[in-house]
Amino acid sequence: MKKEKGDINNKTHHIHIEEIDSTSWLNQLLFLDYLRLNEDIREQYAELKKNLAQKYANDRETYTTKKVDFILDIIEKSKKYFLEYGEN
Predict the structure, then answer these.
(1) What is the DSSP letter of 21?
(2) Could you read off the pLDDT tens digit of each residue along the chain, which spans 88 residues?
(3) Which of 21, 33, 63, 81 could be joined to 56 by an S-S link, Cβ 3.0–4.6 Å?
(4) Distance between CA 82 and CA 30 in Å, rounded?
């Protein structure tokens, strides 16, 4: 069944728009680069998203909030990794 647009509870898309060189833009790149380099972390994130999507299927805000600690942890790990090893 196709959802009708308009009602806040019927959102079908979620987009990120960031200002280039902003902290949030750089953090997004750090997070994505770290996921690309680490299959285990990528699988953990996929599993987290799957579990949260099932648990909060009708609550996008809580789904998003519940990912924050994982994402912040990965951003910190990514910063340490890239400071030590560079971009390679």
Answers:
(1) T
(2) 555 555 666 667 778 788 999 999 999 999 999 999 999 999 999 999 999 999 999 898 999 999 999 999 999 999 999 999 887 5
(3) 63
(4) 9
Structure tokens, 20: 């280039």
Indicate if the alpha-carbon torsion angle 20, 22, 24, 29 is positive or negative. Answer: positive
Residue 82 to residue 71: CA distance in whole angstroms: 16
- Which pTM does this prediction carry? 0.80
Q: Can you give the C-alpha Rg of the chain in angstroms?
A: 15
Which two structure tokens, joined as six digits, stand for 57?
């299927």
What's CA 39's distance to the chain center, in Å? Answer: 15
